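Deliverable D2.4 — example input (structure tokens):
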């Protein structure tokens, strides 16, 4: 008998397909050029038809949007550009009616400089209890004119900003994102309250932003990368924090996914112990070049690091921070590297699309849960943003060297022949859409069985209805050089050809789906993948 997919049970998160909505760019309900919750609500049927189990919303709270909403001014208020709390509640319940769970994004490392706490800290001055919620310090040098330590920013530039009374405050990201002091009990209490606030409104899960960064060495010491123990990445205190979060989430049946980017497998797995986070993003897979040997190693390493703690792996090909898959895979060097992200690096969109289609079948066949980023199902390439329209602080803080992340955040095309491709009723979108995007519009792709959207719809439907996908074992099959072939339970087989010549397929498999046509001899062409049932 076929197993019941766990997407229908309390263990749904072990093999869910989760769709990431970047609210600003998904759908614009009120026609002001910025996406909003009204827009999302009208498009929920689209998400249900696509066949996803949950939607993760990047931050939708009150925010000056200096870092796309990762600068939160108030967690209990929806930004007016996006809507109201009442609308968020409606959205959560309408999504639930369609069988879609909602995951929100919490950013524990920092708040916006407009957050009431930070404003109070500025007003209260040195030595005040208000300042203890952040990392305020006197400067070094004769007159305190030098920053308190030498930490480089996660975005280019310094991590310290001096305020008029002479003290400096720490910000791992932009100056508009002051870091919270996680050694302070009020910071912990506040976040636990925020989690309750949202779980009580029916959210099913929480994505934890920069989850390995919030705790800091109490002395904030200088350090030499690779020599000294790191003073803020992956501090042991974090586990205590996440254990208390887990206990709280368990009261509501809520789940976590941590944004934990750590090269050390053993340290990474600690976050996934049974009383800590349920899942964490697996960025090594996203970062892996289109190379059979390296992908196989990454998959093996990922499964091996998750196994001892019993946590399912997560698989991600793109998100709002990285170059879109089609563009990345269209490059001769597909390795993820912020430096090679520069526009002008030659990319072959046809090749990138073929590989992205094959990668979709690979990803959806792997054991665990999978995340799709809005527009990935449309095969959108990275858009080129005119310099005068760039918004991402990453671009400005790098002195214009890094193109920034706007190219993957462009508003979605829904209707080929409508203004702004149907993103909203009217109005210029907040980021310009390329002139040739009509071909990516949802209505055009819906009509074509060979479109990326049709591939994703079919693949997600099969992943739900055919036993063997999702959580569970996998084993590699013998395969030619450059070919990945593996089995899943119930006779399911996935074959991906990354070699530059056609590959033979197993003799007795029934073809469930292929990312492109087989050749005249029934072989699997380069950069193509299939699902078979033995
Ligand atoms: C995470 C987010 C990114 C944001 C940063 C700071 O990496 O994904 O978009 O800029 O954290 O909050």
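Example output (designed residues):
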């Amino acid at each position: 008998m076929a197993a019941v997919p766990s997407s229908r049970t309390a263990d749904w998160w072990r093999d869910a397909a989760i769709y990431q909505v970047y609210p600003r760019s998904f759908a614009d309900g009120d026609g002001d050029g910025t996406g909003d919750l009204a827009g999302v609500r009208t498009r929920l049927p689209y998400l249900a038809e696509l066949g996803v189990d949950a939607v993760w919303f990047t931050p939708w709270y009150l925010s000056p949007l200096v870092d796309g909403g990762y600068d939160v001014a108030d967690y209990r208020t929806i930004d007016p550009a996006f809507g109201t709390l009442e609308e968020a509640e409606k959205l959560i319940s309408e999504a639930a009616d369609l069988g879609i769970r909602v995951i929100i994004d919490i950013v524990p490392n920092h708040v916006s400089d407009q957050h009431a706490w930070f404003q109070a800290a500025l007003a209260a001055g040195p030595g005040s209890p208000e300042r203890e919620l952040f990392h305020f310090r006197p400067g070094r040098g004769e007159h305190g004119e030098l920053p308190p330590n030498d930490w480089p920013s996660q975005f280019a530039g310094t991590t310290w900003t001096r305020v008029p009374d002479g003290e400096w405050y720490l910000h791992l990201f932009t100056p508009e994102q002051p870091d919270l002091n996680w050694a302070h009990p009020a910071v912990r209490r506040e976040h636990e309250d925020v989690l309750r606030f949202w779980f009580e409104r029916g959210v099913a899960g929480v994505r934890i932003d920069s989850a390995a960064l919030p705790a800091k060495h109490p002395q904030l010491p200088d350090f030499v990368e690779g020599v000294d123990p790191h003073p803020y990445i992956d501090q042991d205190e974090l586990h205590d924090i996440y254990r208390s979060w887990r206990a709280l989430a368990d009261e509501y049946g809520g789940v976590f996914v941590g944004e934990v980017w750590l090269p050390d497998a053993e340290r990474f797995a600690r976050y996934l112990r049974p009383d800590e986070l349920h899942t964490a993003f697996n960025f090594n897979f996203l970062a892996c070049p289109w190379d059979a040997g390296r992908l196989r190693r990454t998959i093996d390493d990922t499964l091996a690091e998750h196994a001892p703690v019993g946590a399912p792996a997560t698989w991600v090909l793109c998100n709002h921070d990285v170059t879109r898959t089609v563009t990345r895979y269209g490059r001769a060097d597909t390795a993820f590297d912020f430096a090679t992200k520069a526009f002008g690096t030659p990319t072959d969109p046809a090749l990138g699309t073929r590989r992205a289609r094959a990668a979709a079948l690979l990803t959806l066949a792997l054991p665990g849960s999978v995340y799709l980023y809005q527009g990935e199902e449309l095969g959108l390439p990275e858009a080129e943003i005119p310099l005068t329209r760039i918004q991402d602080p990453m671009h400005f803080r790098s002195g214009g060297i890094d193109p920034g992340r706007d190219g993957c955040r462009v508003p979605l095309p829904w209707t080929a022949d409508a203004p702004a491709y149907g993103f909203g009723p009217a109005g210029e979108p907040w980021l310009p859409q390329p002139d040739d995007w009509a071909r990516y519009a949802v209505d055009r792709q819906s009509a074509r069985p060979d479109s990326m959207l049709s591939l994703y719809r079919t693949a997600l439907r099969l992943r739900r209805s055919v036993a063997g996908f999702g959580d569970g074992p996998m084993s590699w099959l013998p395969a030619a050089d450059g070919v990945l072939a593996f089995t899943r339970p119930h006779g399911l087989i996935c074959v991906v050809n990354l070699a530059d010549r056609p590959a033979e397929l197993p003799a007795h498999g029934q073809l469930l789906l292929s990312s492109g046509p087989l050749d005249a001899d029934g072989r699997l062409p380069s950069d193509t993948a299939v699902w078979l049932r033995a």
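Residues 133 and 186 are 8 Å apart (CA to CA).
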